[in-house]
Amino acid sequence: MNPVVRSLRQVGASLAGAKAGLASRWNAMGPTQRLSAYVLGVLALYLAPWWTEIPLLGSIVDTPGTQFTTVLSDRVIIFVLVALGLNVVVGLAGLLDLGYVGFYAVGAYTTAILTSSHASLPWLLALPVSIAVSMVFGVILGAPTLRLRGDYLAIVTLGFGEIIRLSAKNAEWLGGSRGINDIKHPPSIGPLKFGVVDPKPYYWLGLTMVFAVMFLLHRLENSRVGRAWVAIREDEDAAELMGVDTFRFKLWAFAIGAAVGGLAGVQYAGKVGFINPDNFPLLLSILFLAAVVLGGSGNMHGAILGGILVSYLPERLRNFQDKRVFVFGVALVLVMVFRPEGLLPKKVGTRKAVAAPGEGGAQ
Amino acid sequence: MRDWLLYRTFWDLTITGLALGSIYSLVALGYTLVYGVLRLINFAHSEIFMVGTFGALMASQEFLGIPMLEDGGYPYRTGFMLIVFLVFILLCAMVFSGLGAVALERVAYKSLRGNGDLFGAVVLAFLTGFVVSMVFVDDTLANVIVAAILTAPITMGYMSLFRRGKQSPRLAFLISAIGASTAIAEAMAIWGPEKREQYQTPRILEKDVLFSFLGADVRVDNVIVIVGALLMMVALTLFVNKSRLGRGVRAVAQDAETARILGVNVDMIILVTFALGGVMAGGAAMLFTLVYEQSRFNIGFILGVKSFTAAVLGGIGNLKGALLGGLVLGLVENYASAVFGGQWKDVVAFVVLLVVLMFRPTGLLGESLGRARV
Amino acid sequence: MKKSRVLRASALLIGLSLVGVACGGDDTSSDTTAAAGGDVTCDGLKIAFFGALTGDAGNLGQNIKKGVDLAVAEFNEANPGCQVGIEAYDSQGDPAQAPALADKAVADASVVGIVGPAFSGESKAVNGKFDEAGLPIVTPSATNPDLANQGWKIFHRALAGDDKQGPGIVQKITADGKAKVGVIDDNSEYGKGLADIVQAGLGAAAVEMNSLDPEGSDYSAIVTAAKDAGVDGIFFGGYYAAAGKLAKQLKDGGVDAQLYFADGVLDVGFIEAAGPAAEGSIIMCPCAPKDSNADFLAAFKAKFNEDPATYAAEAYDAATAFLDAIAAGKQDRASILEFLKTYDKAGVTKQIKWDEKGEVAGNAIYAYTIESGAIVGKPGLIG
Q: Which residues, other chains included, contact B301 with Cβ-Cβ below 8 Å and sequence gap of 6+?
């Protein structure tokens, strides 16, 4: 066996060993220890804006040329939210959505219209309305199209994303190519000032949203709805035969995915204060999908990892200059060839079948 | 709505719409062939088209040495030489696209089928070495050298890391396709001769008006595109229906496992399928440069989306459907421009698609996945 | 008692973060001032370029940066005691990438002035940040009229906005006696904005045509519409690549109208794209002809071995304003901003003097024609 393969195998083995070691330690911990680990982890994430100040680790993590905290608040947290939402549609329910940017845009534009161009509502009020409008769009898109087979759904959702973008571009009341500016920022609470220059409060707000969404989705995954999604994803015909109303649950997946996407849009609009149709190109839908699949579709943590990678790496690798996107393309192919289920693959089904003694068990 | 513009200019729009649609049809053939055989949306097919336009550029400017301007005017050629040149450019474009499609299949998709081979491993290894060295050195030549040195050991590693016999999930194919598409387009943008600029191809065909049809001028290039596309499509159909390889394609499209058992070399057939799609895209590329005389590193993207839409519109997996879908799309775009304005034409196209799919969920001519209906 | 590795790692990370918080913050560099001219001393000052250096619009940014490079190089040579650096922020013209870069610029205290942002879209996204941070900017290329009306005290423009270019174009077209003019745009903010102004200005003479898709290739619908309308003039608001395609298809389609374009088309790329169809086209621009300042032309050619392209000269003027401020001893953002308020100097392109909204006084619009495959400038048309 040649030395490269041998060393690769050894690295792989030690990583697997470390993972198994951590996993067994984790399982061995008591509930209070796990809770404190979670709390410390969450705290560390809230302190992320200061990671760049840490000697040594900071310079590895820092993004050259751009402000690290702004990358966190404008790119990473948005992509993580979007990946969580798209994961519901693609990963959990198995629906190929190539137009997810549409929901993101609807959320952003609704906020923009309500706080700037057609009304003057505060951001906080625009937030639930925008999410609701996104959900409505999710249902509008889903109702006629979810009866289509998988790959047809892809092109139709792609078309939907483009229709949203082009309508925003052509309609004067949506700002046209000029876009909408002066979008209101979230209200400042005490020491947290949501102004123009400091990105930290936005990051914290977004991070809180991520945790909230994670919590809700986790509950959803373990509920009847979540199980129905897994059944639909694994074998839709069988699920239909077993009495699962596949259409209704697929529509739910769309609606919830749209809601999360809309939420990301609201957060984005509230941060940058200015949006135009060029913020929502088809390419972004593709990037979102790549994030989910790269990280491991169907797996919430995989989606988060994918979202972080896809948003953070291009900024971290800015010194690649012009060649960033090329490297990204090659990386996608390489990861898919060698790890097609994504970096953090999903666990097959939510329950493990336990084999009775004597039966050939599943591995 | 717009002052009866559509009514007055109907035949003009129809002629040019059919020409545009013919190009869509040829590219759509590539999508539909691959989908019919592999159930895969070959996202990178648009870049195969772009490579074909680049091939046309190479053919006319480098190999044939035709200048962009001659005495301040177009470098027209006539008679026999014109035909020779056009055929040469066509063949060049087809070769570029065909080879590109074959390479794409071997690198980005084959290993995902559980069948990774040496060619794919070598290319991937080279790319890995190239990208890794880019982290340390910003000089392309140095990167190439380092990559070349590292290719051999990495290849061997990859060969054993390939997952044998295990088919990857469908999403993995799609993302690999997206990655390949991005990488090819960006490679052309970074290392191609024109970088990110729009580049032109010389005009050797004088675009006279041939005749008038119900008030509309029909130019010679319109005729060549429509007739040329039809001819290529007929040739493809004959190949798929009559030749032995074509039979293999239909067999694999119908049931790959059974075909394999019956002795069909499935990998070879898949290669042929991609090659056929590539050749069609090359033909489209040549016709495209004939009419529009320009291209760009990212020309594939929009055209690819539209052609894929055309393929679905007509019925994916169905060759005649690709033709119909392309022509319909070309016409719809032109008519919509006249009625609603150019900025709405894509919206109209997608709405048409949606409406068609709602009433005929498998497209205008229906699917023919493996039903030997071409 | 056994603590999990995870717990330890998190604690470490948090501890370090807290250390980072405590020790974080940067200190400004000290600088000295001196008399103007060759005796200026300064320490670690930088002028920044903000715009697209790579990506689809990278060409434009490269032109602009060269203008800045030239100005700074000349300054540094004349002032050995004060070497001004250049910081380049490559936004790729993308308003989504711009904020993170802008924050970096704001946080870098050695950056005392920005030439840019180059595009109107990214300007809208980030100028508010610069305004709040008091970082003065001079854009050499963003022509959207709205930008001057946002109340940004740091905003300055080194060329006329579209609200001046538009009427200039209308004046030219009317002076040429065109009675029926088709107005086409590329549906971009710049193109459509300008086309709307021109259309309004032309009044009854204007025939509204379509918007076209600059990324697309087939404009046959527009050609057909133009032929049908029988126009004798066509104005297209957009950039050179699409303009070239349009010109070619119009001529091929038998449309003989006089073609008018604006500053986004003033690039050799237009002639390349349109081929012989470009001949006779008229391009208006608030930018000065190449040969209007021989010294600048010579210096540029000597340094870069090519002619200055669109907006390079404006960028040169913009950078010069900052450099003059530094030479006058103003070496921090606030004092440079003050300095710019009363700045009044003949630049390479025009008289550089700003009003309270940041609009520049010299508002000449020039008309260029394409003759024999080259851009030929006619001296100042509308002033």
A: B46, B185
Which residue spans within chain B are E strands per DSSP?
Answer: 199-200, 209-213, 216-219, 294-295
Give the domain CATH number at B103: 1.10.3470
Tens digit of pLDDT for each residue in B214-230? 888 899 989 999 999 99
A333-363 as b/e, with b when 16 or more CB fall inside 10 Å?
A: bbbbbebbbbbbbbeeeeeeeeeeeeeeeee
pLDDT in tens, C307-326: 887 788 889 999 999 999 99
**Do C74 and C35 touch, CB atoms closer than 8 A?**
no
* For C13, nearest residue in chain A (alpha carbons): A44
Indicate yes or no: CB of B343 within 8 angstroms of CB of A166.
Answer: yes
Burial label for C309, CB within 10 Å (0-12, 13-18, 19+), is: buried
Rounded Cα gap, residues C94 and C123, in angstroms? 10
Question: Is B346 near chain A, with CB under 8 Å?
Answer: yes
**Which of A57, A181, A199 is nearest residue C103 as measured by Cβ atoms?**
A199
Instruction: Write down the domain spans for chain A.
Output: 65-281
CB C53 within 8 A of CB C65: yes
Is residue B137 assigned to a domain? no
With 70 as the cut, is the pLDDT of residue C4 above it? no
* pTM of this structure: 0.87
pLDDT of residue B256: 84
Is residue A322 less than 8 Å (CB to CB) from chain B? yes
- The tally of domains found in chain B comes to 1
φ, ψ at C293 (rounded to 5°):
-135, 100
Q: Which of C211, C224, C269 sits opposite B341 (nearest CB)?
A: C211
| Residue where the block lists tokens 């798209």 | A86
User: pLDDT tens across C125-174, in order?
Assistant: 899 889 989 999 999 988 888 899 888 999 999 988 888 889 989 999 99
* Of the partner residues B134, B157, B187, the one whose CB lies closest to the CB of residue A320: B134
The C-alpha angle C279, C281, C285, rounded to 5 degrees, equals: 135
Q: How far apart are CA C199 and CA B195, in angstroms?
A: 35
In B150-261, where do the E strands start and end?
Answer: 199-200, 209-213, 216-219
| A229 pLDDT above the threshold of 90 | no
A323/B186 CB distance under 8 A: yes
pLDDT in tens, B189-200: 888 888 878 888
Q: Which residues have a Cβ under 8 Å from the Cβ of C86 and sit 6 or more positions away?
A: C46, C47, C48, C49, C65, C68, C69, C72
Q: In whole angstroms, how far apart are CA A106 and each of A113, A116, A148, C185?
A: 10, 15, 23, 26
Query: Can you tell me the distance from the alpha carbon of B233 to that of B244, in angstroms, rounded to the nearest whole number?
Result: 18
pLDDT at B170: 84
**Within-domain flag for B72:** yes
Is residue B140 a part of any domain in this protein? no
All domains of chain C in start order, with CATH:
37-159+291-353 (3.40.50.2300), 163-285 (3.40.50.2300)
C358 with C155: CB under 8 angstroms?
Answer: yes
